[in-house]
Automatic annotation (TrEMBL):
This is Uridine 5'-monophosphate synthase. Keywords: Decarboxylase, Glycosyltransferase, Lyase, Multifunctional enzyme, Pyrimidine biosynthesis, Transferase. It catalyses: orotidine 5'-phosphate + diphosphate = orotate + 5-phospho-alpha-D-ribose 1-diphosphate; orotidine 5'-phosphate + H(+) = UMP + CO2. Signal peptide: none annotated. SUPFAM superfamilies: PRTase-like (SSF53271), Ribulose-phoshate binding barrel (SSF51366). Homodimer; dimerization is required for enzymatic activity. Its EC number is 2.4.2.10, 4.1.1.23. Bifunctional enzyme catalyzing the last two steps of de novo pyrimidine biosynthesis, orotate phosphoribosyltransferase (OPRT), which converts orotate to orotidine-5'-monophosphate (OMP), and orotidine-5'-monophosphate decarboxylase (ODC), the terminal enzymatic reaction that decarboxylates OMP to uridine monophosphate (UMP). CDD domains: OMP_decarboxylase_like, PRTases_typeI. Residues 250-463 form the Orotidine 5'-phosphate decarboxylase domain. GO terms for molecular function: orotate phosphoribosyltransferase activity; orotidine-5'-phosphate decarboxylase activity.
Length: 481
C-alpha cells in the first residue's frame, strides 16, 4: 500500500468519523477524570459496518510486518474491530475478561494460548495508555507476552511514552493533530475550537513516570488490592482483596481460644476490623456443629472469610479424608485451609479434589515465624513453584516476607504484635509496619495481641489501623520511586 493512498484513506476516515458523530467537540470528562474539549465516541462505529471494516483494515496495515501469535482487543469498543482483523487475516484472537466468571474454568483470558505466546493489543483510542496497560497486565498474568499495541487514534497525551516505559511500542493510525488538520481544512471545525483543542493537548499530558503499572509487575507493592483482585483466577482471593479494600483492613484474627462461647464473642466484637478469621478448630473443648453454623453467620454479618489453620501435611488420599470427614468436616465451612509442601504436590491435589468443587482455596506454608524452623531457602522456593502449578486452587502463602512477584498471590504473615519480640516457646514477633511496609507482605495474622488484650475490639482496631497505614504508606512510596 503506497503511503499517499494510506494518507487519503485516513483523511476520508477522519471526515467520516466526524459525520457519524464519533468525534465531538464541547466539554467532556474523560475516564482519567480530566476535562476535555474533544471526545471520541468510537462505539458508534458498530452502526456503520463500512467504517468498521475500514478501521480494521487500516489497523492491520500498521502491524502487518510485526510478529505476534494472537490479537486481543481492549474491551469493549475494540472487541468487534479485533474480531474483524482476526477473521480477515486468520489470526487467533484472545478476549480479556474484565472479571473472571467465578465458576467453571474461571479464566481471565479466553481463547487458546501457551505460556510465552506473543499478543498484539488492539485499541480504539489511547490517552494515558492505562487501558492498554491493564489489558497487557492481565495477559502478562497468564504468561502471554505483550510488546506492541495498535490504536486507531493516539490522543498525544503521554500514552506512547507511558507504554514505552512499560516495554510496549504503540503504533497508531492517526493522531489528534491529524484530526485537527483534516477537520479544519475541511471546514468542519471552527478556528477557535482548533486553538482550544491544541492548547488542551499541549497542557494535558500524563507524566509517564507517575502511576506506571509495569506490564508484568516485579513488585506487588505498586498495585492496589482492587487491581490485584482483578488479576485473580480464584474467586476467594478475588473476594478477599475486595473485602480488604472495602473494609480498609489487612488484619486476620487468629482466634486461638478454647471455648466456643469465647470464640464467638471474640469474633463478633472484632468482626468489623478484620477481613478474615483464622481458627484452630481442634483446640476447642466443646466443638459441635452449632459453633461453625454461628461462625458462618458472623462471617456473613461482618463480611470476612474463614480460614482453618489445619496445616495439612500428609499424602493426598489421607488429606481427602481429613479435610472432608472426621469430626470437623472442615471443607463444609472453612473458605480457606493451609498445607505444608513437605509431602509434595499430592497434598494439594488431595485438598483440591475436595475443595475446588465447593469453591474453596488453599494457602501453602512457605515460611514460618518460629525460631529455628526449617522452611527456608530452596524449600520456600520449591513451595512457590508448587503454588504456581496450582494457581486455580492455591491462592498464596503463609510466609514472613514477600516471596512471589505474582500479584494474584496473597502473602499472609503470622507472628505480629505492635512491638517486636519473642515468646518463651520460640514464636518471633514483628510489627505491622515491618511486615507490610518493609517485607512486602499483604496480611497480618494476630492472635494473642488481640484476644489477650483487655479490650480485644479496640486492640483489633489498633492492628487494623497499623496494618492498613503500612499498606497505604508502602503504595505511596512505590509511586514516588
Ligand atoms: O509460622 C506460623 C504459622 C502459623 N502460626 C499461627 O498463627 C497464630 C499466631 O498467634 P500469636 O498468638 O499471634 O502468636 C497461631 O495460631 C499460630 O498457630 C504462626 O504463629 N506461625
Amino acid at each position: 500500500m503506497a503511503a499517499s493512498s494510506m494518507e487519503n484513506r485516513v483523511v476520508a476516515l477522519i471526515s467520516r468519523l466526524h459525520d457519524v458523530q464519533a468525534v465531538k467537540f464541547g466539554d467532556f470528562t474523560l475516564k482519567s477524570g480530566i476535562q476535555s474539549p474533544v471526545y471520541f465516541d468510537l462505539r458508534v462505529m458498530i452502526s456503520y459496518p463500512d467504517v468498521m471494516v475500514e478501521v480494521s483494515q487500516l489497523l492491520w496495515e500498521k502491524i502487518s510486518t510485526s510478529n505476534f501469535k494472537s490479537i486481543c482487543g481492549v474491551p469493549y469498543t475494540a472487541l468487534p474491530i479485533a474480531t474483524l482483523m482476526s477473521a480477515a487475516h486468520n489470526v487467533p484472537m484472545l478476549i480479556r475478561r474484565k472479571e473472571a466468571k467465578g465458576y467453571g474454568t474461571n479464566k481471565l483470558i479466553e481463547g487458546t494460548f501457551s505460556k510465552g505466546d506473543s499478543c498484539m493489543i488492539v485499541e480504539d483510542v489511547v490517552s494515558s495508555g492505562s487501558s492498554v496497560l491493564e489489558t497487557a497486565q492481565s495477559l502478562g498474568a497468564s504468561d502471554i507476552v505483550v510488546t506492541e499495541a495498535v490504536v486507531l487514534l493516539n490522543r498525544e497525551q503521554g500514552g506512547v511514552e507511558k507504554l514505552e516505559a512499560n516495554g510496549i511500542k504503540l503504533h497508531s493510525v492517526f493522531t489528534m493533530t491529524d484530526v485537527l488538520d483534516v477537520l479544519s481544512r475541511a471546514g468542519k471545525m471552527e478556528p477557535d475550537m482548533v486553538i482550544k483543542v491544541t492548547e488542551y493537548i499541549a497542557t494535558n499530558k500524563f507524566q509517564p513516570n507517575k502511576e506506571i503499572l509495569s506490564v508484568k509487575p516485579k513488585s506487588n507493592n505498586i498495585l492496589k488490592y482492587s487491581e490485584r483482585a482483578a488479576l485473580c483466577s480464584n474467586g476467594l482471593s478475588r473476594r478477599l482483596f475486595t473485602i480488604m479494600e472495602q473494609k480498609k483492613t489487612n488484619l486476620v484474627l487468629s482466634a486461638d481460644v478454647t471455648s466456643s462461647k469465647e470464640l464467638l464473642q471474640l469474633v463478633d466484637k472484632t468482626g468489623p476490623h478484620v477481613c478474615m478469621v483464622k481458627t484452630h478448630v481442634d483446640i476447642l473443648e466443646d466443638f459441635n456443629q452449632d459453633v461453625v453454623d454461628s461462625l458462618t453467620k458472623l462471617a456473613a454479618k461482618h463480611d470476612f472469610l474463614i480460614f482453618e489453620d489445619r496445616k495439612f501435611a500428609d499424602i493426598g488420599n489421607t488429606v481427602v479424608h481429613q479435610y472432608s470427614g472426621g469430626l470437623y468436616r472442615i471443607s463444609e465451612w472453612a473458605d480457606v485451609v493451609n498445607a505444608h509442601a513437605i509431602p509434595g504436590p499430592g497434598v494439594v491435589q488431595g485438598l483440591k479434589k475436595v475443595g475446588a468443587p465447593k469453591g474453596r482455596a488453599c494457602l501453602l506454608i512457605a515460611e514460618m515465624s518460629s525460631s529455628g524452623n526449617l522452611a527456608t531457602g530452596s524449600y520456600t522456593q520449591d513451595t512457590v513453584k508448587m503454588a504456581e502449578e496450582n494457581k486455580d486452587f492455591v491462592i498464596g502463602f503463609i510466609c514472613v516476607s514477600k516471596i512471589s512477584s505474582n500479584p494474584s498471590f496473597l502473602h499472609m504473615t503470622p507472628g505480629v504484635q505492635l512491638e517486636a519480640g519473642q515468646d518463651s516457646l520460640g514464636q518471633q514477633y514483628l510489627t505491622p509496619s515491618e511486615v507490610i511496609g518493609k517485607r512486602g507482605s499483604d496480611l497480618i495474622i494476630v492472635g494473642r495481641g488481640i484476644y489477650q488484650a483487655q479490650d480485644p475490639a479496640n486492640a483489633a482496631k489498633q492492628f487494623q489501623i497499623a496494618g492498613y497505614d503500612a499498606y497505604v504508606t508502602r503504595m505511596a512510596e512505590a509511586m514516588i520511586l
